Amino acid sequence: MAKPTQPDVFPDSRLESDAGATFVLESKGKWWHAGYHLTTAIVGPTILTLPYAFRGLGWGLGLFCLTALGCVTFYSYYLMSRVLEHCEKAGRRHIRFRELAADVLGSGWMFYFVIFIQTAINTGVGIGAILLAGQCLKIMYENFSPNGSLRLYEFIAMVTVVMIVLSQLPSFHSLRHINLISLLLCLGYSFLVVGACIHAGFSKNAPPRDYSLESSSSARVFSAFTSISIIAAIFGNGILPEIQATLAPPATGKMVKGLLMCYTVAFFTFYSAAVSGYWVFGNKSNSNILKSLMPDEGPSLAPTMLLGLAVLFVLLQLLAIGLVYSQVAYEIMEKQSADVKLGMFSKRNLIPRLILRSLYVIFCGFMAAMLPFFGDISGVVGAIGFIPLDFILPMLLYNMTHKPSRLSFTYWINLFIIIAFTGVGIMGAFSSIRKLVLDANKFKLFSSDVVD
Fold first, then answer.
1. Cβ of 177: how many Cβ atoms within 10 Å?
2. Closest alpha carbon to 278 in 56, 435, 436, 68
3. Quick check: bond before 250 cis, omega within 30?
4. Cβ–Cβ contacts within 10 Å for residue 409, how many?
5. Distance of alpha carbon 385 from alpha carbon 428, whole angstroms
6. Partners of 247 in the beta sheet?
7. What would the pLDDT profile of 143-167 be if each residue is shown by its tens digit?
8. Whole-angstrom Cα distance, residue 67 to residue 347?
9. Distance separating alpha carbons of residues 96 and 19, to the nearest angstrom
């Protein structure tokens, strides 16, 4: 008796009409390419915010939360990869988070819920990347020209122009070489920053160390949940299905190798940046540790050349991060605007791509210039974006697809994570938005300083 044929995981009908899948999420990559994409999505200059997150937690709770969130996210991404592989073997290869969630949970509203959350993440990270890149340029400029007249929003405009040019790279897969360089850059600047912090800690200009928390118990609780949201945002990516979509099928086992590559880099960079930065600056840590090392008043706390090189590495990696997190937005745009039958580089598809992607980057740049709240943006994005997608949905999707026994450890640990991080997300959203509102009184539109 002949074996039944397996369903086609790439139905021609979809490829004939879905330009987002064909152009932006083309499936050609190897496992190490997925590792490059994951590392760029997770291990970025946001690690320079870790000392700032620690100041709301202290040493013990800070290290515990960093380790716990790292373990939970690795486990979460592993389960998400298993869910995607399960669906692929069943003949339904999902290349978008929203389609996966809607299929497994059988709910149309989940499709739009994931779109909304992913849009919040992508836009938030895009704004944060441009803002931090502009701040890096400003730091370099002020050290070469202390009395210069250029303001933060002008540097943000410069970064936005460069991002408009780079945004025209047509597909996620076409970023693989850029993301390899990004991986090397994050290793480079993290160890430069660690060296700078050690130098600063032992220099005669070392700041007085104070690791005390807020005096009010309620303020300590709010600060702690804000810090947890920031760490969640640093570990989160919210686009793992789209990254796995770039792998040439079958994807079985490939994402696990990519995750191991990513978390090896994360282990060395996250802990070294968090511990060295908080050790030196304590509860005075800035939302960008480079700014703490190069204070507005007084000399730099580390050699200028070392800091300048670190800032340059950060600036270059931010361009890659902005590109990675823009891919979901570009995929949505091209699914609606492009005609797959005419080819990726046809005039019919090239002009809409140029216009739509440029408008998206301009919007992110404008918001970055108008609302310079990098630390607070990280907290809000972590609470309302990364926690639902990276800490709750993967466990739910796994329990729905693999149906572990209700007596098994896997079922109960997944249920515990869902409940615990639902609470953390609610509290984190409340405390992060509260801090955002409080900080709104400290600045004016298009300020030349990033509010901590």
1. 10
2. 56
3. yes
4. 9
5. 11
6. 29
7. 778 777 888 889 999 999 999 999 9
8. 50
9. 13
